[in-house]
Amino acid sequence: MQKKSINIVFFTKESLVTKNIPFYYLVGFSSDTTNVMAGGHKSKIALFKKDNDDLAFIKCSCHGIHIVNSHECSKLSNSAEELLRNLASYFHQLVED
């Protein structure tokens, strides 16, 4: 993981340099919640904080919401999914007729 995050940081900074954007111009950064991006010690966020402690970091709430929803939806019965498929099929047939 450490090598991946160091590579990501290197290529991000290199991209900023090629576009003539100083690193200190960055005011915020948002990413998913993987360890490479948002882990405790050797993540992209941790390595960025070494260079700019004032940088605001926001973990992606969509990723967390998706994980919770996927877990909860796995507990639902298949009858709701079958009902939605049947409704879609019914309306699709109405349009074709």
Characterization of the model:
The chain is mostly helical and 97 residues long. Helices cover 63% and strands 8% of the residues. The longest helix has 19 residues, at 78-96. It starts with a helix and ends with a helix. The mean pLDDT is 78.
Can you give keywords for this protein?
two-stranded parallel ribbon, mainly alpha, elongated, single chain, 97 residues
Widest β-sheet, arrangement of strands: 1-2
Radius of gyration: 22 Å
Which percent range describes the beta-strand content? 5-15%
The number of helical segments is 5
What is the helix/strand order? HEHHEHH
Instruction: Using the alpha-carbon principal axes, give the shape.
Output: elongated
What summary fits the major beta sheet? 2 strands, parallel
Distance between the termini: 56 Å
Low-confidence stretches: none
What structural category characterises the helix and strand content? mainly alpha
Total DSSP E strands: 2
Overall average residue pLDDT: 78
Classify the helix fraction into a percent range.
55-70%
Indicate the topology.
Elements: H1 2-18, E1 28-31, H2 35-38, H3 44-51, E2 56-59, H4 61-73, H5 78-96
Parallel strand pairs: 1-2
Quick gist of this model?
This protein has five helices and two strands, in the order αβααβαα.
